């Protein structure tokens, strides 16, 4: 492996998502996650405690299919129904149930414009529906009252205090007393059965009727439960279950009542027509009977001859037929009148049963279409295709009825002419009867005509009354309104899940913001994202148990093992250590640990029985001699100005017999000029013959150019980056040095890494010892600045 080139060894690997690395980046902020989860959990519990639970109230309604009621005898009506399209009744009833007209009635009858709440101080006020100890009765309402919230504190069964948050009202009044405020007035009455000891204050909110209607239309849901059935599901969501049940019950009740009202309108109109005719016929019949009685009394007639009775029977039969013809003509006249005023009149269907079946079917179909048009007009606009189709059908039916009436009138008039002729013939025969008897027959005939007509009207009235009384709704409640066993909102599991996710997202966002705002290098990833220069090694923070700045390289501490790993990694650089004896250390700024690492790497090499010399070339702020406790009065500065020889400035150390140092000497005013005079190169060449390794401790390259000058004598260079100390922007210096090749064989050393607290992981320092970071070596909580 020693023969591997530097480029091959540090060949950049294809980047992959390292989930473990992502995870450990957040572990150091575990306390943020704990705090966030606690806060969001408390928030979720507070929300669930405060918010009003919402329940779902449901009911189901069966809509009967009217088209299925057509019998086999109504073939004409069946054909007409089929020709005008399919059955849309279920869809129509769904729209009717969701109509504003019905909901307006529900809001009005249940007084939903007034809402009562129990005034809890720390909890969302629950609504009082059906169990409020007061009744708020508005008398004069305006927009100002809609804007107020009235708070009522019951003092006793006779009086109470009423106030508003706006302070427009605050006084004690008696129950039932008129209260005037903001241009409006109202009264408050007590409901003693709902009084409890220590009644809570009650909030009263008055809302416009249109607002409440819109509110409940928005939450009302009407749907077809099964496409193959006519059962509708009706549901809404409400915080007060009793209120929701009352709304659905009232909605169904109003819907059924409206349906029956429309259905009975035809029967009621027919009854009214028959009653008017009965009153007229009854008066005429009484007059005729009086005439019969007077005639018999005045003429002394008690019986008629057999011949007269036969003539009378014939004339009666003829007159009966004429009467039937007249009734049919009147019915046809009534139908013509109905056609002229359809939309305001209802066809007398129970009378039309005596007519021609085809005409009867047309009339009943017209009545159905008129009712259907009226129903569509309530829920659809005039441009609705379905409504326009019904109007076209009505026009066609009317035209067919008119033609049928004209045909029937022609036939009936012909029959009437024939019957009139027969009547004249019979009357001619009657003339032979004595004058008295003939007059009596005429009066008797009028009596029989009126009686037959009277009996016919009585029969039709009873038939219509039975139809009116037996009318039932076309719908039936399958399931009465019922409340869901548990609230549908808020969903506890969903709230807890959202709060848990939020409890993770918030700290992740905070950590990312912290990382974005933090301009310092915090991890190996930060270095790799900002520069392509390879990292040769990582040095962790020193334990408090290790005193001084020189590590015992023969010990088994974590940091000593990391230096041994760094020493081993040097062997893989191109050319091997034997060819690259001169090693330069620099950094961006002071305090990043370049002197500490250079000195301890030299100590690690000395343990291998290699002669190592450390040159303290940071002539502005020397540290190495301070770490070793070496006098620097004679050193590099003296040599560079020619005041000392090479042999005089080389000093041994107490760290290891193989470790030597050349201290900085007195701090000069012109370090760059001294380092550039050529004597440094001579010194380095000399030291290469006397020592196995020469370590150059140079000034920070980010502050001065000394390191660039010194770098000409180095075989390899190490740039020290310290965790949470070096700025990310300073890595651009590394990029410039590498791109311009100002320093030979440039690599990075990541120093001061807090492996434990940061959840940091990297390479397996401790190789061969079977331990992890910190195992058996105490607690590593910090590191001295070096």
User: Beta-sheet strand percentage?
Assistant: 15-25%
Q: What structural class is derived from the secondary structure elements?
A: alpha/beta
> What level of helicity do the residues show?
40-55%
Rg over CA atoms, rounded to whole Å, is: 56 Å
Number of strands: 21
The total of helices stands at 25
Strand order of the largest sheet: 14-21-20-15-19-16-18-17
Low-confidence stretches: 1-13, 67-88, 761-786
Q: How is the biggest beta sheet arranged?
A: 8 strands, mixed
Identify the quaternary structure here. single chain
Q: First CA to last CA: what distance?
A: 34 Å
Overall, the morphology is rod-shaped
Mean pLDDT: 79
General description of the model:
This protein is α/β, with parallel strands linked by helices. Helices cover 49% and strands 15% of the residues. It has 25 helices and 21 strands. The strands form 4 sheets. It has an 8-stranded mixed sheet with strand order 14-21-20-15-19-16-18-17, sandwiched between helices. It has a 6-stranded antiparallel sheet with strand order 3-2-10-5-6-7, with no helix packed on it. A 4-stranded antiparallel sheet has the order 11-12-1-13. Helix 25 links the parallel strand 20 and strand 21. The longest helix is centred in the middle third of the chain and has 59 residues, at 241-299. The two termini are 34 Å apart. Residues 1-13, 67-88 and 761-786 have low confidence and may be disordered.
């Amino acid at each position: 492996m020693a023969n591997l080139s530097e480029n091959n060894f540090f060949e950049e690997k294809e980047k992959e998502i390292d989930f473990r690395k992502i995870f450990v980046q957040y572990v150091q902020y575990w306390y943020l996650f704990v705090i966030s989860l606690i806060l969001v959990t408390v928030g979720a519990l507070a929300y669930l405690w405060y918010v009003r639970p919402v329940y779902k109230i449901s009911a189901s309604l069966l809509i009967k299919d009217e088209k299925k009621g057509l019998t086999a005898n109504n073939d004409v009506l069946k054909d007409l129904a089929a020709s005008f399209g399919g059955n849309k009744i279920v869809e129509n009833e769904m729209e009717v149930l969701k109509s504003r007209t019905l909901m307006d009635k529900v809001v009005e009858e249940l007084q939903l414009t007034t809402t009562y709440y129990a005034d809890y101080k720390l909890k969302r006020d629950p609504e009082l529906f059906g169990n409020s100890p007061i009744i708020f009765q508005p008398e004069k309402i305006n927009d100002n009252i809609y804007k107020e919230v009235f708070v009522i504190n019951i003092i006793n069964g006779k009086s109470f205090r009423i106030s508003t948050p706006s302070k427009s009202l605050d006084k004690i009044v008696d129950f039932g007393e008129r209260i005037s405020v903001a241009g409006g007035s109202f009264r408050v009455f007590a409901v003693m059965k709902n009084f409890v000891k220590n009644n809570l204050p009650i909030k009263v909110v008055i809302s416009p009727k249109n607002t409440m209607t819109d509110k409940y239309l928005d939450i009302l849901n009407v749907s077809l439960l099964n496409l193959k059935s006519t059962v509708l599901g009706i549901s809404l969501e409400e915080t007060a279950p009793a209120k929701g049940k009352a709304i659905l019950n009232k909605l169904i009740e109003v819907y059924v009542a409206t349906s029956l009202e429309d259905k009975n309108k035809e029967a009621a109109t027919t009854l009214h027509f028959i009653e008017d005719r009965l009153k007229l016929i009854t008066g005429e019949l009484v007059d005729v009977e009086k005439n019969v009685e007077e005639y018999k009394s005045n003429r002394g007639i008690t019986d008629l001859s057999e011949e007269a009775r036969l003539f009378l029977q014939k004339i009666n039969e003829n007159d009966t037929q004429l009467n039937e013809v007249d009734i049919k003509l009147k019915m046809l006249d009534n139908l013509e009148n109905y056609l002229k005023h359809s939309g305001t009149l209802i066809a007398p269907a129970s009378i039309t049963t005596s007519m021609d079946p085809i005409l009867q079917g047309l009339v009943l179909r017209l009545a159905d279409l008129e009712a259907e048009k009226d129903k569509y007009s309530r829920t659809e606009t005039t441009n609705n295709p379905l409504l326009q189709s019904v109007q076209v059908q009505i026009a066609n039916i009317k035209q067919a009825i008119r033609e049928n009436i004209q045909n029937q009138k022609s036939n009936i008039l012909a029959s009437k002419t024939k019957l009139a002729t027969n009547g004249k013939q019979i009357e001619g025969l009657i003339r032979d009867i004595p004058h008295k008897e003939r007059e009596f027959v005429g009066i008797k005939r009028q009596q029989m005509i009126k009686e037959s007509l009277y009996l016919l009207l009585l029969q039709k009235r009873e038939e219509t009354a039975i139809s009116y009384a037996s009318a039932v709704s076309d719908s039936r409640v399958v399931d009465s309104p019922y409340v869901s066993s548990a609230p549908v909102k808020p969903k506890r599991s969903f709230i807890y899940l959202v709060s848990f996710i939020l409890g993770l997202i918030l700290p992740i966002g905070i950590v990312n913001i912290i990382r974005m705002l933090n301009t310092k290098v915090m991890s190996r990833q930060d270095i790799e994202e900002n520069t392509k220069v390879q990292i040769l090694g990582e040095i962790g923070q020193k334990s408090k148990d290790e005193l001084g700045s020189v590590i015992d390289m023969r010990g088994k501490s974590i940091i000593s093992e990391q230096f041994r790993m760094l020493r081993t990694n040097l062997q893989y650089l191109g050319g091997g250590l034997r060819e690259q004896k001169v090693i330069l250390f620099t950094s961006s700024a002071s305090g990043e640990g370049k002197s500490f690492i250079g000195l301890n790497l030299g100590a690690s090499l000395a343990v291998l029985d290699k002669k190592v010399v450390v040159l303290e070339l940071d002539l502005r702020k020397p540290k190495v001699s301070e770490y070793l406790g070496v006098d620097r009065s004679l050193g590099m500065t003296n040599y560079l100005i020619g005041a000392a020889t090479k042999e005089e400035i080389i000093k041994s150390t107490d760290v290891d017999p193989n470790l030597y140092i050349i201290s900085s000497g007195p701090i000069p005013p012109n370090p760059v000029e001294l380092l550039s005079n050529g004597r440094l190169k001579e010194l380095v060449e000399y030291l290469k013959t006397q020592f196995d390794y020469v370590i150059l401790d140079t000034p920070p390259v980010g502050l001065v150019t000394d390191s660039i000058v010194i770098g000409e004598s180095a075989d390899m260079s190490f740039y020290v980056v310290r965790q949470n100390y070096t700025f990310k922007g300073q890595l651009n210096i590394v990029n410039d040095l590498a791109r311009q090749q100002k320093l030979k064989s440039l690599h990075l050393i990541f120093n001061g890494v807090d492996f434990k607290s940061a959840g940091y992981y990297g390479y397996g320092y401790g190789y061969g010892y079977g331990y992890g970071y910190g195992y058996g070596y105490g607690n590593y909580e910090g590191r001295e600045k070096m």
